[in-house]
Amino acid sequence: VSCPTATDCQAVGGYQGSDGTPVTLAESWDGAAWSIVASPTPPGSPDSVLSGVSCASATHCLAVGRSYSPSFAGKDDTLAESWDGASWAIRTSPSPSTTSNLDGVSCATAARCLAVGLFFNSSGNYQTLAEKWNGSSLSIVNQDAVLAGVSCVRAARCVAVGARFSRGSVSVTLAERWNGTSWRAVHTPNPANSEGSYLQAVKCVSAHECLAVGYYYRLDNTRLTLIESWNGKQWSIMASPNPHGAAYSVLYSITCAGASRCMAVGSSAGRVLAERWNGSRWRIVPTADPSSTAYAELSSISCTSASRCLAVGYETDTHYHADVTLAERWNGAAWTIVPSAAPGESRFRSSALHGMSCSTTGRCLAVGYRQTRSGSYAAITERWTGRGWVVVGSPSPTGSAFAELSAISCVPTDRCLAVGDYFTRGGRFVPLSVRWNGTGWHLMRNAHDIAPPSGISYLLDVSCVESGSCLATGTQGDPANLEVLSRRWDGSA
Predict the structure, then answer these.
(1) Dihedrals phi, psi of 395, to nearest 5 degrees
(2) Is the per-residue pLDDT at 413 higher than 80?
(3) Would you call 238 exposed, middle or buried from its count of C-beta atoms within 10 A (0-12, 13-18, 19+)?
(4) CB neighbours (10 Å) of residue 135?
(5) Average pLDDT of every residue of the chain
(6) Which strand ranges, in their side-by-side order, compose the sheet holding 377-384?
(7) Distance (Å, whole) CA 299 – CA 163
(8) CA 464 – CA 160 distance, rounded (Å)
(9) Is 132 exposed, middle or buried (0-12, 13-18, 19+ CB in 10 A)?
(10) Of 185, 343, 344, 362, whose CB count within 10 A is highest?
């Protein structure tokens, strides 16, 4: 409710219509009684509500909320309506993603309002949303950007990919090149019918040959695979298949044993997805799914040859009612599930593997998180024995209630660097970096100094070309305005 005077108030909310459809509600107070005022609901929407209102005067009010898309009920868009003293009218408001809500608003003048809420960002997390009103339209206050994947062929030749918000408030693909001293953004295409596009991972076999994978949304909320290629001069979209009838298909990781021998993994319709590149086209490869899973995905893959690949992720087990680690092996002809350590699963505690890397010696390490007995989350690492995965450590900062490792990169000498994030005792999310010396893990020093005092900072991927040359990428900043982050390690810390 908002009252510009003692005898003029506007209140908003929602109610269930006679047909059972939730619709917007607005009422007006004249100093003596309340009366219902007609408020519009987006045509065809199965569920709409107004959550906040602010009036700069009796003839200038702005109300905000959310409305489900009439074409697909899972698409949650922002909703804004303005009051001119006589009637309410829907105003265009940007929706950064397929889950976008405005919950509150405050107007200093008729042409100066700020609305706040949340959206599901390009990193797969809920994030704060702020939009400003200039008297006629709403626009997002800040931008959001993330570099989710990175691949280096030499210390001064790296490519990173991710997503950012365009001026039209739609997430678009992002790619940048590292020359050893600075980053340079490179134009990337987006599908013509995309309502949001994201690149999750990249693999370069040379400075002029890279492949990036991810996904994009259509207006009906269908999520489809996205693959792009770099030829040294420009990025182009490649044709990538999607399982028939699946409304949700995502690629999270890619690896290549050569320019014409690549494999990408992810999830589709709640089941594991794998696609193979033979130099001319991408094809879906049949995968193995646990028998008692409600959802499964492969988050990372590493191949030492075209017929020897390992992939890790997690699955939501219907027996243990928890997320548990998942690992599969490729022999050149088929995928099979291999044993993976899921500490705490018998006690209904969750665990997952986010990243993995294999050195040329065939030794592999995987990283992720596990839920502890106290309910907190700690980083977890597992090593491949040749027959299965075994836990080899939990390199988490002392006293942290949450820690996870998102990615790992190993060099031929079996030295590895893993990155992620953790929650400090001071209440900040900051980068977590740990290195493997061949026998054990060691926490990197001064990781907490990277995060700004009032913001967050985390690393999502890392690429090492030699023991003393690694590049990690992620995002940092105020939660309402995240910017790309990159950190280089020279082997000295």
Answers:
(1) -80, 75
(2) no
(3) middle
(4) 14
(5) 88
(6) 351-358, 364-371, 377-384, 389-393
(7) 18
(8) 13
(9) middle
(10) 343
What CA–CA distance (Å, rounded) separates 156 from 73? Answer: 47
85-123 tens-digit pLDDT: 999 999 999 887 778 899 999 999 999 999 999 887 655
Does this model's pTM top 0.90? no
Q: How far is CA 26 from CA 9, 323, 430, 468, in A?
A: 11, 43, 43, 63
Please state the rounded mean pLDDT for residues 366-374. 92
Q: What is the pLDDT of residues 157-198, one digit of tens each?
A: 999 999 987 655 678 999 999 998 899 999 999 999 888 899
